[in-house]
């Protein structure tokens, strides 16, 4: 299979569209460069150009990723953290993203998910309900210490 190589300008144009469509991490752009068959020697220059023209901004990507996963998929901080690490986002940008999550909304979402899950397990024994609710929330990426507080609060009310 013979891969067609793009010129630096063609690649830059394609990547501008790719980044303008939605926020991307540096790693995603790097992968796209490989997929497009761009010469390795041109990668750094193209990425630098995208950063300069503000098409690529890791901090902005991390904040949007965290906010989106939290609002749309109700992910907890741990799952968001692992998702950002998978995208090879810097620790600095990850910290910024985590701070950008609204604490009140976070706790509200955790309580709502816990209440709904606990209520959906009405037929189960008390301890089984607690365990399944806890496992569900852990899988969503919420912190164990917050989960225990919420489950204690639910089971007592």
Percentage beta strand: under 5%
The helical percent reads over 70%
CATH architecture of the largest domain: Orthogonal Bundle
Instruction: Report the major sheet.
Output: none
What is the count of helical runs? 9
How is the CATH topology of the largest domain named? Arc Repressor Mutant, subunit A
Q: Tell me the domain tally.
A: 3
Low-confidence stretches: none
Mean pLDDT: 93
InterPro entries: RecX_HTH_2nd (IPR053924), RecX_HTH_3rd (IPR053925), Regulatory_RecX (IPR003783), WH-like_DNA-bd_sf (IPR036388)
Domain RecX third three-helical: 108-151
GO cellular component, one term: cytoplasm
Subcellular location: Cytoplasm
Tell me what the structure shows:
There is one protein chain. The chain contains nine helices and no strands. It starts with 7 loop residues before the first helix and ends with a helix. 22% of the residues are buried. The chain has 157 residues and is mostly helical. The radius of gyration is 21 Å and the shape is elongated. It has three domains: 8-56, Arc Repressor Mutant, subunit A (Orthogonal Bundle); 59-99; 103-156, Arc Repressor Mutant, subunit A, CATH 1.10.10. This is Regulatory protein RecX. Pfam families: RecX_HTH2 (PF02631), RecX_HTH3 (PF21981). Residues 108-151 form the RecX third three-helical domain.
């Amino acid at each position: 299979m013979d891969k067609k190589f793009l010129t630096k300008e063609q690649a830059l144009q394609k990547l501008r569209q790719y980044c303008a469509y939605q926020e991307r991490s540096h790693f995603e752009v790097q992968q796209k460069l490989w997929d497009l068959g761009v010469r390795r020697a041109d990668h750094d220059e193209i990425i630098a150009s995208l950063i300069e023209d503000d098409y690529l901004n890791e901090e902005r990507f991390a904040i949007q990723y965290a906010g989106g996963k939290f609002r749309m998929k109700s992910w907890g901080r741990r799952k968001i953290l692992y998702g950002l690490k998978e995208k090879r986002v810097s620790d600095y940008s990850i910290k910024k993203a985590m701070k950008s999550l609204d604490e009140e909304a976070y706790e509200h979402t955790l309580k709502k998910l816990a209440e709904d899950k606990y209520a959906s397990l009405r037929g189960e024994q008390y301890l089984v309900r607690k365990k399944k609710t806890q496992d569900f929330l852990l899988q969503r990426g919420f912190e164990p210490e917050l989960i225990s507080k919420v489950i204690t609060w639910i089971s007592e009310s």
